[in-house]
Write a structure and sequence with these properties.
Layout: H1 2-38, E1 39-44, E2 47-52, E3 55-58, H2 67-90
Antiparallel strand pairs: 1-2, 2-3
Length: 99
């Protein structure tokens, strides 16, 4: 009887470990897919930017200085992008106007 219980215990432990590995792999794959979707390179105002969630933040030349300057540049690019989106929402920069 002890041998049967010991075998069941080992199988259950192995099943739990395999399940934990599968869950960890699924979580890692989901995080990787999210990172690939959220952090990309995009064109904005004729230049390439590193973007996060569709917001252009850093140009390649912004990374040549120190980190403080890069963050300051990213904030400026964000403000420019945000301002353009606000103008688009008001309908002043759209390609055509509906009458």
């Amino acid at each position: 009887m002890n041998k049967i219980i010991e075998r069941l215990r080992k199988r259950l432990q192995a099943w739990h470990e395999e399940r934990a590995e599968r869950m960890e792999a699924a979580c890692a794959a989901e995080l990787d897919e999210t990172a690939r979707r959220e952090v990309q390179v995009m064109e904005f105002n004729g230049e390439l930017y590193m973007s996060v969630s569709g917001v252009p933040l850093l140009r390649a030349e912004d990374l040549k200085g120190d980190l403080t300057c890069a963050v300051q540049a990213a904030r400026g690019h964000y403000k420019d992008w945000k301002e353009e989106k606000l103008w688009e929402r008001k309908g002043t920069t759209s390609a055509f106007t509906l009458y």
